[in-house]
Predict the structure.
Amino acid sequence: MLKIIPVFVSIILLLTAVLCGCGQSVVEPTYAQPITVDMLQALSNSDYPGYISHLSQDMKAKTTQNDFIALSTFCEEQLGQYESSETNDVSVADNQTTVVFKVRYQLVADVLVTVNFINNGGEPLVNDFYMDSFRLEPVYSSMITSSMLQALTANDYQSYCLYITEDMYFRTTSDIFNQLQQYYKATIGDFVSLQFDKIQLELTKITVTYKAKYSLVQEVTVTVVFVPAGDTVAVDGLFLYSPEMVS
């Protein structure tokens, strides 16, 4: 028995070391805050060259000046000027560092900005950048979303297609629409009302999430993806989820 004790103690010490190591927090890289502040200020000032100067090649290729101007204009109108930021969370996975900042704007105090950094030969570059808010509902979003949900309930394909992109129109044929309408009618019932939940801002799209009430289900998560369409926006995705729909 005495010979077993040292082995047992060694195991306990090893487990303790592993558990302590797992609890260590990831340190925020020194470059994260300055780069993020530069990009947020560039958005506020409509500074396209300043914004893309920190981007990876892949993200630069996807970041057109028109998309940047659309996002910058939206931020200026809905958020106001950038004021300050503080680190909210840091994580590392697959050789990429993701930092989440809590950002204060002139009009909205608690916007979450997520920045994904990669290492390019010792130079940190931004490979993803998006913003989340629980307060910032676009003025057009509720009307368009309610109209589409009402059209689904009424089996009105023409009204449903009024606000969608050409790509979504080809993805959602009248046969597919009819199948969706019948499925939703059987599982969640008729659309009743809509309540804003949150928004996610990306350079090429705005994703808005709602909590919807239906006649058979009290809460259905509705996700709508808006994309720029000239001087306006169009819907490129509409998704409904409820546990009752998959049970």
